[in-house]
Amino acid sequence: MLIRRKEQKTYGTKKLIDGEYSCGDDVVVIEDVITSGASILETVTDLEKSNLNVSNVIVLVDRQQGGMQRLSERGLKIKSLFNITEIVTILKEAGKISDEVYQSVLDYVISNQIQPVKECEKPLRIKLEFKERAGLLETSKIAQKIFNVSLEKKSNLCVAVDVDTADKLLDIAEKVAPHICILKTHIDAINGVTDATINTLQHLAKKYNFLIMEDRKMADIGNTVKLQYKKLVQWADLVTVHSVSGGMMLKGIHEVIKENAGLLDSRGVFIVAELSCNGNLISEQYIKETVKIAEEYKDIVAGLVCQSYDIISSPSLLQLTPGVNIKNSNDNLGQQYQSPSDIILTKGADIAVVGRGIYQDSNPAEAAKVYKESLWNTYLERVSNS
Hints:
Largest sheet: 8 strands, parallel, barrel
Pfam families: OMPdecase
Strand order of the largest sheet: 6-7-8-9-10-11-12-13
Enzyme class: lyase
Strand content: 15-25%
Radius of gyration: 25 Å
Keywords: Decarboxylase, Lyase, Pyrimidine biosynthesis
Helix content: 40-55%
EC number: 4.1.1.23
Distance between the termini: 37 Å
Shape: elongated
Number of strands: 13
Organism: Aphis gossypii (Cotton aphid)
């Protein structure tokens, strides 16, 4: 059983959703009375932000004022045990209320229908095409580069090559290279990486026109991050960071980029703003402060790693969202996979990250092609519907 709090606690776990659950669990929402359905929709939204699946709602009493229809239009399956007409009819037949009271209730229901309420408008970022967003004055050079690569290759696919040896890394990288806009690496977790490995990666990136992102998730004080980043800046176009140590960390990265003048317009970061795993300690306030930091260092921030469409409002920032897998819904370690439609249309991703769905496939090149086409077509659907 889960409980959705009216507001987030400022102590303890600071969770909006309390209870025992895992990413991808199915949830049934139970409510006593439905009028407009607004409170149920708020609950569903918060549950989905916690990576829970909601498709069914049960209410005890439907006041028949439009709430059931509103939830149905949202794609939810909703059932009520009783509606107000049934209740007053039973009461009238039992002699508990007069004919006048019975009729007044029915008249009230008819004359007080809830007007259709527009769902929260999705941010402009979701509606604009990549070409328009790349042309905005506030879009960083590194974000422009990602947009342009995506447009040229008609790909918003980032492949995470989480393998254990350098040979496997280069083998997969070459196979998926024609179909990706970003290659995500964990170089510190791979055995046998040498300067030759890095040089080959850079050669592939130049030949096939993709960017390299080292998923290092740096999170230390500014000076330490600065020292760490000096080892990455020469070969990694992008690096991931946490915002836990504040803006000084990004200041350190910015100083390293400025020290390498030739790389000034071709290096940047993605900040992790949101995690999908159950039990993480990221709060709503943390997310808000992360977005502020991204706005402050927009010249080097390409975007945010997040799971929700409403985290980023600025069209100049990209949303990078992991967890796409067409064939599987989860693994045995809590990872919950989603379809291209979930990631692009519902969660608002601009760039989607696919890992095992591609590099563990018997034909990684063909798998990358399938994912590329599916994700890109879904992006085109999103902007055409806007």
